[in-house]
Design a protein that fits this description.
This protein is of the alpha+beta class. Helix content is 37%, strand content 11%.
């Protein structure tokens, strides 16, 4: 039985915590930052959890997690 390969694109974007939650980074932090409020940019820096409906899809791309 061959080993299951990890999708490298997903491995770069998602991290699995010890409790099993899948964490991701927020979008909208690449450009046009001068027009965004300071509080919005501060909140976008934090990591967020992947939504429940997407968890199964992400877990299938990260078999080692």
């Amino acid at each position: 039985m061959p080993k299951i390969k990890t999708r490298k694109a997903a491995a770069k974007r998602f991290r699995i915590t010890k409790t099993g939650k899948i964490m991701r980074r927020h979008t909208k932090m690449r450009h046009l930052l001068a027009w965004k409020k300071k509080s919005v940019k501060r909140n976008l820096r934090k990591v967020g959890a992947v939504s429940h409906s997407d968890e199964a899809r992400v877990r299938s791309m990260l078999p080692g997690g």
